[in-house]
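Worked Example 4.2. Consider the chain below.
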Amino acid sequence: MTTPSTTTTRTGRCQCREIQFEVSGDADYVHTCSCEHCQDLSGGPMMSWVSFPLDSLKWTGARGEPAWHYTWPDSRRGFCPKCGSQLCALDDGADSIAITLSALGNPADLVPVNQSCRDSAVPWLAQVPDTRPS
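Applying the procedure from the previous section yields the following structure tokens:
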């Protein structure tokens, strides 16, 4: 017998609200990333991410799903073509999707546990400590 999920459905959107979504399932690997792509796309020193099961994602806004741009040969970023908000990242063949914490409204219960690409991080901002469970 399967136990029903007690995971809360979360909602998110771009800044102009043309692209909206719902996602559920267990949040996985909340982290920041300081790679050059995240810095370029965000206009800041890092982006913050959390992954959810891809099959739990539903695009609910008037515009449907975001526009996509490949930033790596096998990884694309989803953004709103109207306001430019960065919403998600999806690797080819993946069963999970990374959602930006800002698209989710920066919920207080999703706290980054690590920082990717530390060697590209700006030196004037403290890095996120690695607090992942062993």
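The first helix runs from residue 36 to 42. The helical segments are 36-42. Compare this with Example 4.1 before moving on.
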